[in-house]
Design brief:
The protein has 148 residues and is an all-alpha fold. It has one domain. Helices cover 72% and strands 0% of the residues. The protein is built from 5 helices and no strands. The longest helix is centred in the first third of the chain and has 28 residues. The chain is elongated. 27% of the residues are buried.
């Protein structure tokens, strides 16, 4: 039997809600990118990088593959919220890694918009994405009771 520290249910509830919040923020961000024509901006940059350096990345995408992949990612992210609600220890590093990645994602959109002097696809939802990622990192408990 596991020993659940005092306040653990409250901590894991906040953590699970933070996962849901980030999942919904990412879903909104994907819609923002799709409506703004993100691939028309991204694919030429990816092709230029690959033409300059012989790298297999960054990849280019068709709209269907890009949107389908992101839809799967959003569903998976929302499904993982159940693990945060249960306080699974292995979720902690995942929370921090995802938080850093989503903060970087949002900041790239904002920085590109400033550099170009116009909003790029995904810019309007980028602040929400950054805020949700920061909240996920803050809401991640330092200790969790469940070992799995």
């Amino acid at each position: 039997m596991e020993d659940v520290p005092a306040g653990a249910p409250r901590l894991t509830t906040r953590w699970g809600l933070a996962w849901i919040g980030l999942g919904l923020a990412l879903a909104l961000h994907v819609v923002d990118e799709a409506l703004g024509g993100f691939l028309a901006f991204y694919n030429p940059i990816a092709e230029a990088v690959r033409a300059r350096w012989p790298l297999p990345f960054p990849p280019t995408f068709t709209f269907d593959a890009w949107l389908g992949g992101l839809a799967v990612a959003v569903v998976a992210l929302l499904a993982l919220s159940a693990c945060a609600f249960r306080g699974f220890r292995w979720m902690r590093p995942l929370s921090y890694a995802l938080g850093v990645f989503m903060i970087a994602n949002g900041l790239v959109h904002l920085t590109a918009s400033v550099a170009l002097g116009r909003p790029v696809a995904g810019t309007y939802s980028a602040p929400l994405l950054v805020a949700a990622a920061v909240y996920l990192m803050v809401a991640t408990p330092r200790r969790t009771a469940t070992a799995t």
